[in-house]
Protein backbone atom coordinates (compact mmCIF):
# COMPACT_ATOMS: atom_id res chain seq x y z
CA UNK A 1 0.00 0.00 0.00
CA UNK A 2 1.60 3.26 -1.09
CA UNK A 3 0.22 6.68 -0.27
CA UNK A 4 0.34 9.76 -2.46
CA UNK A 5 1.32 12.36 -3.50
CA UNK A 6 3.40 10.81 -6.28
CA UNK A 7 6.46 12.60 -7.63
CA UNK A 8 4.12 14.92 -9.58
CA UNK A 9 6.15 14.20 -12.72
CA UNK A 10 3.93 12.85 -15.53
CA UNK A 11 7.05 11.54 -17.30
CA UNK A 12 7.88 8.74 -14.87
CA UNK A 13 5.80 5.86 -16.21
CA UNK A 14 7.52 2.49 -15.93
CA UNK A 15 7.00 -0.64 -17.97
CA UNK A 16 5.53 -3.73 -16.36
CA UNK A 17 6.46 -6.87 -18.27
CA UNK A 18 5.58 -10.41 -17.31
CA UNK A 19 5.80 -13.15 -19.90
CA UNK A 20 6.99 -16.77 -20.06
CA UNK A 21 9.39 -17.67 -22.88
CA UNK A 22 10.35 -20.86 -24.71
CA UNK A 23 13.92 -22.19 -24.63
CA UNK A 24 16.17 -20.53 -27.19
CA UNK A 25 13.73 -17.77 -28.00
CA UNK A 26 15.43 -14.47 -28.96
CA UNK A 27 14.45 -12.03 -26.23
CA UNK A 28 14.27 -8.24 -25.96
CA UNK A 29 14.05 -6.11 -22.82
CA UNK A 30 12.35 -2.72 -22.65
CA UNK A 31 12.90 0.31 -20.45
CA UNK A 32 10.05 2.75 -21.07
CA UNK A 33 10.55 6.25 -19.74
CA UNK A 34 8.41 9.28 -20.42
CA UNK A 35 4.73 10.07 -20.49
CA UNK A 36 1.88 7.63 -21.21
CA UNK A 37 2.12 8.54 -24.92
CA UNK A 38 5.64 7.06 -24.94
CA UNK A 39 4.36 4.02 -23.07
CA UNK A 40 1.90 3.41 -25.92
CA UNK A 41 4.83 3.57 -28.37
CA UNK A 42 6.64 0.96 -26.27
CA UNK A 43 3.59 -1.29 -26.32
CA UNK A 44 3.37 -1.05 -30.10
CA UNK A 45 7.05 -1.89 -30.55
CA UNK A 46 6.80 -4.90 -28.24
CA UNK A 47 3.60 -6.08 -29.91
CA UNK A 48 5.37 -6.05 -33.29
CA UNK A 49 8.38 -7.89 -31.84
CA UNK A 50 6.18 -10.45 -30.11
CA UNK A 51 4.39 -11.10 -33.41
CA UNK A 52 7.78 -11.83 -34.99
CA UNK A 53 8.57 -14.47 -32.38
CA UNK A 54 10.64 -12.46 -29.91
CA UNK A 55 10.25 -13.02 -26.20
CA UNK A 56 9.87 -10.08 -23.83
CA UNK A 57 12.14 -9.86 -20.79
CA UNK A 58 11.48 -7.97 -17.59
CA UNK A 59 15.18 -7.76 -16.69
CA UNK A 60 18.53 -7.08 -18.33
CA UNK A 61 20.05 -10.50 -17.71
CA UNK A 62 17.22 -12.31 -19.49
CA UNK A 63 17.46 -10.20 -22.65
CA UNK A 64 19.61 -10.50 -25.77
CA UNK A 65 19.26 -6.74 -26.26
CA UNK A 66 17.48 -3.85 -24.57
CA UNK A 67 15.39 -1.02 -26.04
CA UNK A 68 15.37 2.22 -24.04
CA UNK A 69 12.42 4.46 -24.93
CA UNK A 70 13.54 7.90 -23.77
CA UNK A 71 11.99 11.17 -22.65
CA UNK A 72 13.37 14.52 -23.80
CA UNK A 73 10.80 16.98 -22.48
CA UNK A 74 12.90 18.49 -19.65
CA UNK A 75 16.63 18.59 -19.03
CA UNK A 76 16.08 16.53 -15.88
CA UNK A 77 14.20 13.93 -17.97
CA UNK A 78 17.04 13.92 -20.51
CA UNK A 79 19.52 13.27 -17.71
CA UNK A 80 17.35 10.42 -16.44
CA UNK A 81 17.21 8.96 -19.97
CA UNK A 82 21.00 9.10 -20.30
CA UNK A 83 21.32 7.41 -16.91
CA UNK A 84 18.92 4.64 -17.99
CA UNK A 85 20.88 4.10 -21.22
CA UNK A 86 24.12 3.86 -19.22
CA UNK A 87 22.60 1.36 -16.81
CA UNK A 88 21.33 -0.79 -19.70
CA UNK A 89 24.76 -0.70 -21.34
CA UNK A 90 26.45 -1.74 -18.08
CA UNK A 91 23.98 -4.51 -17.33
CA UNK A 92 23.38 -5.87 -20.85
CA UNK A 93 25.71 -4.27 -23.38
CA UNK A 94 23.40 -4.28 -26.39
CA UNK A 95 21.20 -1.17 -26.31
CA UNK A 96 18.90 0.40 -28.90
CA UNK A 97 17.61 3.90 -28.12
CA UNK A 98 14.32 5.36 -29.31
CA UNK A 99 11.79 7.98 -28.21
CA UNK A 100 11.80 11.74 -27.89
CA UNK A 101 15.46 12.08 -26.93
CA UNK A 102 16.25 9.98 -29.98
CA UNK A 103 15.50 13.08 -32.04
CA UNK A 104 18.95 14.25 -30.86
CA UNK A 105 21.19 11.28 -31.77
CA UNK A 106 24.47 13.18 -31.40
CA UNK A 107 23.47 14.16 -27.87
CA UNK A 108 23.06 10.47 -26.98
CA UNK A 109 26.08 9.06 -28.82
CA UNK A 110 28.25 11.83 -27.43
CA UNK A 111 27.67 10.38 -23.98
CA UNK A 112 27.12 6.72 -24.91
CA UNK A 113 28.96 5.95 -28.17
CA UNK A 114 28.43 2.20 -27.75
CA UNK A 115 24.67 2.21 -28.31
CA UNK A 116 23.73 0.08 -31.32
CA UNK A 117 21.23 2.50 -32.86
CA UNK A 118 19.29 5.69 -32.13
CA UNK A 119 15.83 6.40 -33.58
CA UNK A 120 13.34 9.18 -32.96
CA UNK A 121 9.79 8.99 -31.57
CA UNK A 122 7.25 6.62 -33.17
CA UNK A 123 9.82 5.36 -35.72
CA UNK A 124 8.68 1.79 -35.27
CA UNK A 125 10.19 0.36 -38.47
CA UNK A 126 13.65 1.74 -37.69
CA UNK A 127 13.49 0.22 -34.19
CA UNK A 128 12.54 -3.16 -35.64
CA UNK A 129 15.38 -2.93 -38.18
CA UNK A 130 17.84 -2.22 -35.37
CA UNK A 131 16.55 -5.16 -33.34
CA UNK A 132 16.79 -7.47 -36.36
CA UNK A 133 20.40 -6.41 -36.82
CA UNK A 134 21.34 -6.97 -33.20
CA UNK A 135 19.24 -10.07 -32.49
CA UNK A 136 17.97 -11.86 -35.63
CA UNK A 137 14.44 -13.26 -35.32
CA UNK A 138 14.09 -17.02 -34.95
CA UNK A 139 10.36 -17.75 -34.70
CA UNK A 140 8.91 -21.18 -34.05
CA UNK A 141 5.89 -21.36 -36.39
CA UNK A 142 4.19 -23.86 -34.09
CA UNK A 143 4.57 -21.72 -30.95
CA UNK A 144 5.12 -18.07 -31.81
CA UNK A 145 1.76 -16.95 -33.14
CA UNK A 146 0.48 -13.43 -33.55
CA UNK A 147 -1.10 -12.61 -30.18
CA UNK A 148 -4.83 -11.96 -30.06
CA UNK A 149 -4.15 -8.63 -28.37
CA UNK A 150 -1.15 -6.37 -28.08
CA UNK A 151 1.56 -6.44 -25.44
CA UNK A 152 0.48 -4.24 -22.54
CA UNK A 153 2.84 -2.47 -20.16
CA UNK A 154 0.04 -1.46 -17.81
CA UNK A 155 -2.11 -3.66 -15.57
CA UNK A 156 -4.62 -5.65 -17.59
CA UNK A 157 -7.65 -3.68 -16.42
CA UNK A 158 -6.67 -0.28 -17.80
CA UNK A 159 -4.99 0.89 -20.97
CA UNK A 160 -3.85 4.12 -22.58
CA UNK A 161 -5.54 4.93 -25.88
CA UNK A 162 -3.50 7.33 -28.00
CA UNK A 163 -5.72 9.19 -30.47
CA UNK A 164 -3.20 11.48 -32.18
CA UNK A 165 0.45 12.40 -32.52
CA UNK A 166 2.10 15.80 -32.49
CA UNK A 167 0.86 19.27 -31.61
CA UNK A 168 0.08 22.53 -33.42
CA UNK A 169 0.84 24.79 -30.46
CA UNK A 170 4.06 26.81 -30.30
CA UNK A 171 4.58 27.18 -26.54
CA UNK A 172 7.99 28.73 -25.97
CA UNK A 173 8.98 26.32 -23.20
CA UNK A 174 8.14 23.16 -25.18
CA UNK A 175 9.97 21.30 -27.95
CA UNK A 176 7.39 18.52 -28.43
CA UNK A 177 6.32 19.80 -31.89
CA UNK A 178 9.97 19.72 -32.95
CA UNK A 179 10.32 16.12 -31.77
CA UNK A 180 6.89 14.71 -32.66
CA UNK A 181 5.72 17.03 -35.42
CA UNK A 182 2.40 18.69 -36.14
CA UNK A 183 -0.97 17.28 -35.11
CA UNK A 184 -1.77 14.01 -36.88
CA UNK A 185 -5.03 12.46 -35.69
CA UNK A 186 -5.75 8.76 -36.02
CA UNK A 187 -8.91 7.88 -37.98
CA UNK A 188 -12.03 7.62 -35.84
CA UNK A 189 -12.67 4.03 -36.92
CA UNK A 190 -9.07 3.00 -36.08
CA UNK A 191 -9.33 4.43 -32.58
CA UNK A 192 -12.69 2.73 -32.06
CA UNK A 193 -11.42 -0.60 -33.38
CA UNK A 194 -8.51 -0.51 -30.93
CA UNK A 195 -10.78 0.52 -28.06
CA UNK A 196 -13.24 -2.28 -28.84
CA UNK A 197 -10.44 -4.88 -28.86
CA UNK A 198 -9.15 -3.59 -25.53
CA UNK A 199 -12.57 -3.79 -23.90
CA UNK A 200 -13.13 -7.27 -25.38
CA UNK A 201 -9.79 -8.29 -23.82
CA UNK A 202 -10.97 -7.22 -20.37
CA UNK A 203 -9.87 -3.60 -20.10
CA UNK A 204 -12.19 -1.74 -17.72
CA UNK A 205 -10.75 1.77 -18.12
CA UNK A 206 -9.59 3.61 -21.24
CA UNK A 207 -7.24 6.55 -20.65
CA UNK A 208 -7.49 8.80 -23.72
CA UNK A 209 -4.19 10.56 -24.42
CA UNK A 210 -2.53 12.75 -27.03
CA UNK A 211 -0.57 15.97 -27.00
CA UNK A 212 -3.78 17.99 -27.47
CA UNK A 213 -6.87 15.83 -27.04
CA UNK A 214 -9.44 18.57 -27.66
CA UNK A 215 -7.87 19.30 -31.07
CA UNK A 216 -8.43 15.70 -32.20
CA UNK A 217 -9.54 15.57 -35.84
CA UNK A 218 -9.14 19.30 -36.54
CA UNK A 219 -6.28 18.43 -38.91
CA UNK A 220 -8.72 16.61 -41.23
CA UNK A 221 -9.63 18.84 -44.15
CA UNK A 222 -12.73 16.83 -45.12
CA UNK A 223 -14.23 16.31 -41.66
CA UNK A 224 -18.01 16.26 -41.25
CA UNK A 225 -17.99 18.13 -37.92
CA UNK A 226 -15.88 21.03 -36.74
CA UNK A 227 -14.66 19.35 -33.54
CA UNK A 228 -14.59 15.51 -33.85
CA UNK A 229 -13.49 14.89 -30.25
CA UNK A 230 -17.07 15.07 -28.97
CA UNK A 231 -18.26 12.33 -31.32
CA UNK A 232 -15.24 10.20 -30.43
CA UNK A 233 -15.88 10.64 -26.70
CA UNK A 234 -19.54 9.70 -27.17
CA UNK A 235 -18.66 6.54 -29.14
CA UNK A 236 -15.98 5.50 -26.64
CA UNK A 237 -18.51 5.99 -23.87
CA UNK A 238 -20.81 3.44 -25.50
CA UNK A 239 -18.34 0.56 -24.97
CA UNK A 240 -19.12 0.01 -21.30
CA UNK A 241 -15.68 0.91 -19.91
CA UNK A 242 -14.61 3.93 -17.89
CA UNK A 243 -13.34 6.61 -20.30
CA UNK A 244 -10.93 9.19 -18.87
CA UNK A 245 -9.87 12.27 -20.85
CA UNK A 246 -6.30 13.54 -20.55
CA UNK A 247 -4.44 16.58 -22.00
CA UNK A 248 -7.56 18.55 -22.85
CA UNK A 249 -6.96 22.19 -23.79
CA UNK A 250 -9.82 24.42 -22.52
CA UNK A 251 -11.22 25.42 -25.90
CA UNK A 252 -14.87 26.57 -25.87
CA UNK A 253 -16.01 23.38 -27.62
CA UNK A 254 -14.87 21.30 -24.63
CA UNK A 255 -18.17 22.39 -23.06
CA UNK A 256 -19.91 20.07 -25.56
CA UNK A 257 -18.30 17.05 -23.86
CA UNK A 258 -19.45 17.91 -20.36
CA UNK A 259 -23.06 16.62 -20.84
CA UNK A 260 -21.55 13.21 -21.66
CA UNK A 261 -19.93 13.31 -18.21
CA UNK A 262 -23.14 14.39 -16.52
CA UNK A 263 -24.91 11.46 -18.22
CA UNK A 264 -22.28 8.97 -17.03
CA UNK A 265 -21.06 8.07 -20.53
CA UNK A 266 -17.59 9.51 -19.92
CA UNK A 267 -15.91 9.87 -16.54
CA UNK A 268 -16.48 13.33 -15.01
CA UNK A 269 -12.77 14.11 -15.19
CA UNK A 270 -10.71 16.57 -17.22
CA UNK A 271 -6.91 16.81 -17.25
CA UNK A 272 -6.17 20.33 -18.53
CA UNK A 273 -2.69 21.93 -18.89
CA UNK A 274 -3.42 25.47 -17.68
CA UNK A 275 0.30 26.16 -16.92
CA UNK A 276 -0.27 29.63 -15.39
CA UNK A 277 -2.92 32.28 -14.75
CA UNK A 278 -1.30 35.70 -15.22
CA UNK A 279 -1.92 37.05 -18.75
CA UNK A 280 1.61 38.41 -19.13
CA UNK A 281 3.18 35.11 -18.08
CA UNK A 282 0.91 33.24 -20.48
CA UNK A 283 1.84 35.70 -23.23
CA UNK A 284 5.56 35.04 -22.65
CA UNK A 285 4.75 31.32 -22.80
CA UNK A 286 2.93 31.92 -26.13
CA UNK A 287 -0.22 30.40 -24.66
CA UNK A 288 -3.80 31.73 -24.75
CA UNK A 289 -3.92 34.54 -22.17
CA UNK A 290 -7.52 34.25 -21.01
CA UNK A 291 -7.36 33.19 -17.37
CA UNK A 292 -10.52 35.07 -16.41
CA UNK A 293 -12.51 33.44 -19.20
CA UNK A 294 -11.03 30.11 -18.12
CA UNK A 295 -12.64 30.62 -14.72
CA UNK A 296 -15.94 31.22 -16.49
CA UNK A 297 -15.49 27.97 -18.42
CA UNK A 298 -14.72 26.06 -15.22
CA UNK A 299 -17.91 27.39 -13.67
CA UNK A 300 -19.90 26.46 -16.79
CA UNK A 301 -18.52 22.90 -16.64
CA UNK A 302 -19.45 22.62 -12.98
CA UNK A 303 -22.94 23.98 -13.66
CA UNK A 304 -23.48 21.16 -16.19
CA UNK A 305 -21.70 18.44 -14.20
CA UNK A 306 -21.31 19.33 -10.50
CA UNK A 307 -19.25 16.19 -9.80
CA UNK A 308 -16.57 16.97 -12.40
CA UNK A 309 -12.95 16.53 -11.25
CA UNK A 310 -10.39 18.94 -12.69
CA UNK A 311 -6.66 18.21 -12.74
CA UNK A 312 -3.94 20.45 -14.11
CA UNK A 313 -0.22 21.19 -14.12
CA UNK A 314 1.50 24.54 -13.70
CA UNK A 315 4.94 26.05 -14.15
CA UNK A 316 6.40 28.39 -11.54
CA UNK A 317 9.54 30.45 -11.96
CA UNK A 318 9.03 30.98 -15.69
CA UNK A 319 11.42 33.64 -17.08
CA UNK A 320 10.19 37.09 -16.16
CA UNK A 321 7.68 35.84 -13.58
CA UNK A 322 7.34 38.56 -10.95
CA UNK A 323 6.08 38.16 -7.41
CA UNK A 324 2.89 39.91 -8.51
CA UNK A 325 2.38 37.44 -11.38
CA UNK A 326 2.98 34.52 -9.05
CA UNK A 327 0.51 35.94 -6.52
CA UNK A 328 -2.06 36.17 -9.33
CA UNK A 329 -1.54 32.44 -9.90
CA UNK A 330 -2.13 31.70 -6.20
CA UNK A 331 -5.26 33.86 -6.19
CA UNK A 332 -6.51 32.14 -9.35
CA UNK A 333 -5.95 28.73 -7.76
CA UNK A 334 -7.98 29.87 -4.74
CA UNK A 335 -10.84 30.78 -7.04
CA UNK A 336 -10.59 27.82 -9.41
CA UNK A 337 -10.44 25.22 -6.58
CA UNK A 338 -8.94 22.53 -8.81
CA UNK A 339 -9.14 19.00 -7.46
CA UNK A 340 -5.77 17.64 -8.60
CA UNK A 341 -2.71 19.81 -9.17
CA UNK A 342 0.90 19.18 -10.18
CA UNK A 343 3.63 21.77 -10.47
CA UNK A 344 7.00 22.08 -12.21
CA UNK A 345 9.79 24.50 -11.52
CA UNK A 346 10.79 25.99 -14.87
CA UNK A 347 13.81 24.40 -16.55
CA UNK A 348 15.64 25.41 -19.70
CA UNK A 349 15.35 22.78 -22.42
CA UNK A 350 17.72 22.61 -25.39
CA UNK A 351 15.99 24.13 -28.41
CA UNK A 352 13.20 25.87 -26.46
CA UNK A 353 12.63 29.53 -27.30
CA UNK A 354 12.05 30.37 -23.64
CA UNK A 355 15.78 29.92 -23.01
CA UNK A 356 16.44 33.27 -24.69
CA UNK A 357 13.89 35.20 -22.60
CA UNK A 358 15.29 37.82 -20.19
CA UNK A 359 14.98 37.87 -16.41
CA UNK A 360 15.36 34.20 -15.52
CA UNK A 361 14.18 33.50 -11.98
CA UNK A 362 16.83 32.43 -9.41
CA UNK A 363 16.67 28.80 -8.28
CA UNK A 364 15.94 29.65 -4.65
CA UNK A 365 12.98 31.82 -5.71
CA UNK A 366 11.65 28.99 -7.91
CA UNK A 367 11.85 26.62 -4.96
CA UNK A 368 10.13 29.07 -2.64
CA UNK A 369 7.28 29.60 -5.12
CA UNK A 370 6.93 25.88 -5.73
CA UNK A 371 6.68 25.31 -1.96
CA UNK A 372 4.04 28.02 -1.56
CA UNK A 373 2.07 26.79 -4.56
CA UNK A 374 2.04 23.18 -3.39
CA UNK A 375 1.09 24.23 0.15
CA UNK A 376 -2.01 25.97 -1.21
CA UNK A 377 -2.82 23.11 -3.59
CA UNK A 378 -2.49 20.61 -0.76
CA UNK A 379 -4.87 22.59 1.45
CA UNK A 380 -7.46 22.66 -1.35
CA UNK A 381 -7.05 18.92 -1.94
CA UNK A 382 -7.35 18.16 1.78
CA UNK A 383 -10.59 20.14 2.08
CA UNK A 384 -12.10 18.60 -1.03
CA UNK A 385 -11.29 15.05 0.09
CA UNK A 386 -12.59 15.70 3.62
CA UNK A 387 -15.94 16.61 2.05
CA UNK A 388 -16.11 13.12 0.52
CA UNK A 389 -16.19 11.36 3.90
CA UNK A 390 -19.57 9.66 4.25
CA UNK A 391 -20.16 9.48 0.49
CA UNK A 392 -20.75 6.22 -1.35
CA UNK A 393 -18.95 5.76 -4.66
CA UNK A 394 -17.72 3.20 -7.17
CA UNK A 395 -13.99 2.46 -7.23
CA UNK A 396 -11.77 0.31 -9.43
CA UNK A 397 -9.32 -2.06 -7.76
CA UNK A 398 -5.70 -1.68 -8.89
CA UNK A 399 -3.77 -3.86 -6.45
CA UNK A 400 -4.59 -6.31 -3.64
CA UNK A 401 -1.98 -6.85 -0.92
CA UNK A 402 -2.08 -8.41 2.53
CA UNK A 403 -2.72 -5.15 4.35
CA UNK A 404 -5.09 -3.42 1.92
CA UNK A 405 -6.52 -3.11 -1.54
CA UNK A 406 -5.38 -0.04 -3.49
CA UNK A 407 -8.28 1.38 -5.49
CA UNK A 408 -9.13 4.53 -7.44
CA UNK A 409 -12.31 6.57 -7.62
CA UNK A 410 -13.60 8.08 -10.85
CA UNK A 411 -11.72 11.21 -9.78
CA UNK A 412 -8.31 9.49 -9.84
CA UNK A 413 -6.11 8.64 -12.82
CA UNK A 414 -3.51 5.91 -12.27
CA UNK A 415 -0.05 6.92 -11.05
CA UNK A 416 -0.69 10.68 -11.00
CA UNK A 417 -3.67 11.15 -8.69
CA UNK A 418 -4.74 9.78 -5.32
CA UNK A 419 -5.86 6.36 -4.16
CA UNK A 420 -8.66 4.94 -2.07
CA UNK A 421 -7.58 2.17 0.29
CA UNK A 422 -9.78 -0.63 1.58
CA UNK A 423 -8.06 -2.27 4.56
CA UNK A 424 -10.86 -4.49 5.85
CA UNK A 425 -12.68 -7.24 3.99
CA UNK A 426 -10.47 -6.75 0.93
CA UNK A 427 -9.00 -10.24 0.67
CA UNK A 428 -11.40 -11.49 -2.02
CA UNK A 429 -11.08 -8.44 -4.26
CA UNK A 430 -9.41 -8.75 -7.67
CA UNK A 431 -7.57 -6.12 -9.77
CA UNK A 432 -9.95 -4.63 -12.30
CA UNK A 433 -13.01 -5.25 -10.17
CA UNK A 434 -15.34 -2.27 -9.70
CA UNK A 435 -16.90 -2.18 -6.22
CA UNK A 436 -18.97 0.25 -4.19
CA UNK A 437 -17.44 1.72 -1.04
CA UNK A 438 -18.36 4.23 1.63
CA UNK A 439 -15.59 6.74 2.36
CA UNK A 440 -14.76 6.85 6.07
CA UNK A 441 -11.39 8.66 6.20
CA UNK A 442 -9.42 11.22 4.19
CA UNK A 443 -5.90 12.65 4.12
CA UNK A 444 -4.36 15.39 1.97
CA UNK A 445 -4.31 13.23 -1.16
CA UNK A 446 -5.90 9.83 -0.40
CA UNK A 447 -9.11 8.27 0.88
CA UNK A 448 -9.98 5.17 2.89
CA UNK A 449 -13.27 3.32 2.67
CA UNK A 450 -15.19 0.17 3.40
CA UNK A 451 -17.08 -2.07 0.99
CA UNK A 452 -20.86 -1.71 1.13
From TrEMBL:
- Spell out the GO cellular component terms annotated for this protein, sorted alphabetically and separated by semicolons: cytosol; ribosome
Residues reported in the UniProt entry to bind [4Fe-4S] cluster 2 = 167, 171, 174
The gene for this chain is rimO
Protein residues bound to [4Fe-4S] cluster 1: 35, 71, 100
Native source organism of the sequence: Thalassococcus halodurans
What's this protein's family per the entry?
Belongs to the methylthiotransferase family. RimO subfamily.
Q: What PROSITE patterns does the entry give?
A: MTTASE_N, RADICAL_SAM, TRAM
Source species, domain of life: Bacteria
Q: Return the protein name.
A: Ribosomal protein uS12 methylthiotransferase RimO
> What biological-process GO terms show up in the record?
tRNA modification
- Protein's job: Catalyzes the methylthiolation of an aspartic acid residue of ribosomal protein uS12.
Read off the Pfam families from this record. Answer: Radical_SAM (PF04055), TRAM_2 (PF18693), UPF0004 (PF00919)
Q: Which positions fall inside the TRAM domain?
A: 386-452
On cofactor binding, the record's note says: Binds 2 [4Fe-4S] clusters. One cluster is coordinated with 3 cysteines and an exchangeable S-adenosyl-L-methionine.
Amino acid sequence: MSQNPPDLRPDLARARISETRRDGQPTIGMVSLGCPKALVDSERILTRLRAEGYGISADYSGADAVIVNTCGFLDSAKAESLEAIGEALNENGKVIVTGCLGAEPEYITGVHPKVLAVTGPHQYEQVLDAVHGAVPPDPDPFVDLLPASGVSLTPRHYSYLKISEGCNHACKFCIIPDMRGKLASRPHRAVMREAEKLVEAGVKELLVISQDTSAYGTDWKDRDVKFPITDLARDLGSLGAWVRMHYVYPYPHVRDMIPLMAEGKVLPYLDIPFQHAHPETLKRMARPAAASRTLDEIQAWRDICPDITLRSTFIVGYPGETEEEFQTLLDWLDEAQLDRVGCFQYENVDGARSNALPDHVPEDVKQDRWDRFMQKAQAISEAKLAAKVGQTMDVIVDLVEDDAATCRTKADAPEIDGNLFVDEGHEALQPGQIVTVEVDEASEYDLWGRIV
